Predict the structure.
Amino acid sequence: MNVDDQSSSLAFSPWDGWRFWSCFRDRLSGILSGIMTPSALRRIQPNFPRWRNWGQWLGLFAGAIVPIVVLALSLTHCDWESLLAFDWHWLSGWLGVEALPDRLEYQRLLAAIIGSLLVVVVTIPRFKRLPGRRSRAAIVAILAALILRYLAWRVTATLNFSTIADGVLGIVLLLCELLLWGNSLLELALMLRLRERHAETDRAETRVAAGYHPSVDIWIPTYGEPVTVLRRTVIGCQALDYAGPVKVYLLDDGRRLEVRDLAAELGCGYLTRPDNRHAKAGNLNHAIGKTHGQLIVCFDADFVPTQNFLQRTVGFFTDWRVGLVQTHQHFFNPDPIVYNLGLADRLTTNRVAFSHYIEPMRDGAAAAICYGSSFVVRRSALEQVGGFVTHTLCEDYFTGLTLMAAGYEVLYVNEPLSAGLSPESMSAYIAQQQRWAAGTMQGFFIRENPMTLRGLTLLQRLHCTQGWIHWVSTWPRLLFLVMPVPIALLGLTPFKTGWLEWMLWFLPLYGAYLATSHWLNRRSCSALVGDLYAIVGCVPIALTVWQTLWRPFGRAFRVTPKGMARDRAVFNLMPGGWLVGIVALSLGAWVWSLAGVMGWWPVEPDRLVGVRLNLVWLSYNLLVVSTALRACVDAPKPHRHEWFQRQRAGRFGWNDRPAAAPVRSQLVSETGALVLFAPGAVWPQVGDRGWLELQDQPNPGQTRTDSLRLPMQIVAIGDRDRQTGDVTVELAWEPLTLAQQRSLVQWLYCQPGQWQIREAPGEMVSLWLLLRCWLRPRFWRTDRRSAEAIALP
């Protein structure tokens, strides 16, 4: 090595600094995780540089140095006699019953304690990847204390009764906050009992492998779904790996000839009835008397199971107390909100949060919800409770409750053993949410009311109450969206507070909520994205809740449309029209408030703080509501079938040539594929016909590997990649035989372990992504296959 090379190697470049920081951050994360979980210390690699051991302690001290110094100064200047005597002024200052005490030592100690709690709240989620029992309990206790402290301050120190309008508006806002924060307290208390059944599922699979093979009937209820969607579901059900007797049935409530012909072509059972009484519940109950399997498996028309579905679920029924086993509800396509924002490859949906977080939490209290799809139920238990509940739109939810009340267990397996289609337009998504909201609220008016149904435990009733509050809370959310407008335009002051009080009581709570929400829900959804989902459906769901309480059974059952395509962007008036009005009013109120803050029109000195706080409120509303409005524009979706990113090596051959060229698949769907031809390969031409063979590789839990070989035609040839020299070629499948269709569906949808639960980005990343969707809009792009394809292992 020459002198110049040696000098350049010793220079400290920005890249070296980044590597130093990355190593320091990783090592600090590992040590702090080890502090929370001692067994994690054994996972730390021993060959890390020695300087990282010093860096971990330096980073820990730097993160806590500010509250340590403030706390030390506060304790130095405190009046210990008053503190030891539990001075009432100190306690009232903490709770907010009185104004903040004038004595400086109390203010310092209060700030130090709040700062120390915030450091704990921020530090634990940052360095412990997933919550454990003790760390979750610590965060829940801190959040509960901050919520109670904030509510005590709001009740006792912020109400303004100087005028009737101010007093009435202040009471309304306070009641809304009490409902929302009360629901948060209930959720915090319920999340302390969370259950995962991975080990139990492994034992259940062992029992099936050992010879437990009860007979199974698989039901696929359908009403108006496309035959192409039904075809892959039936093929997936017939591909299940199970040694016992299995019979697949299409339950056709549409009495369509093409569905009957499909059943005859695929060799499955076909059941129909003369009317559509009680919709889906009636269809399922009709099938009870026409089938005879010991266990019943139900899949919605768009859900395709993996081959090991029965292996991972049937073994639970060796225990006679188990009445129903619900599996993780996974969707292989993005829902319309993240799809319309162009963030389907970065953000997760609220469905992930429900299946990955809410359901394990409910399972910890023996209160798991039956989704209505991808579940297994014991026939004798179902017959004992009288079949599926018929007088509600949520027959699955209330049927699960009746099984619990009868003494049976409803279990939840948090594994994606099947996958289905999420609604593909905003109108379909809103209609589905309205059906769920109306069906849940109908629980007040039926005999399966969770509050009066005998046999349920207190925890099960509390979980049902939390579900009701979830839908009712759309009304407070709607009021929080529109209330800043009359406050700004009419000069109202519904609460009295100053900047210091607002920063000491509200900001710590909101900061702690943002810092821990993503961590507590096991990284399934960020709080900002959750607020976005709540705002998108706020108006239509609020109206649905009101209509259901006024006319409980006035809404008919409607099937969510699936398998849709569109060649242009479409604006949805519901809920987009309402959000346009909210944005317009909020923007006018924001301009008016800004003018008052800038002194362009006179503002009374005692109202100036309120105007500034209302301006902050309006700014936040404009950000989230405008983003929700952006999500109401359905982006083009020209392809009816989803595309999957599955990279496999393979070969391409011509019908009229003996040669074959090596290729690598990039995207595959039920209609065709995109493959890469390497440099030097024999180039195809548009219109060439031949075959494509792709090699498979085993996934976790897969017992065999198969190759995919299908006939195809070249439909397009892309440009050559400047770096690699590869050429992208688009293929379309030729008409496939039934055996080839089965191979394609099994290769795309049925491989065990292929559906993975994604983690959501944190709050700051989510905020940047939501802001970026305005700077880099993508909804006018018609070909989004590469950007929106579903990644598979």
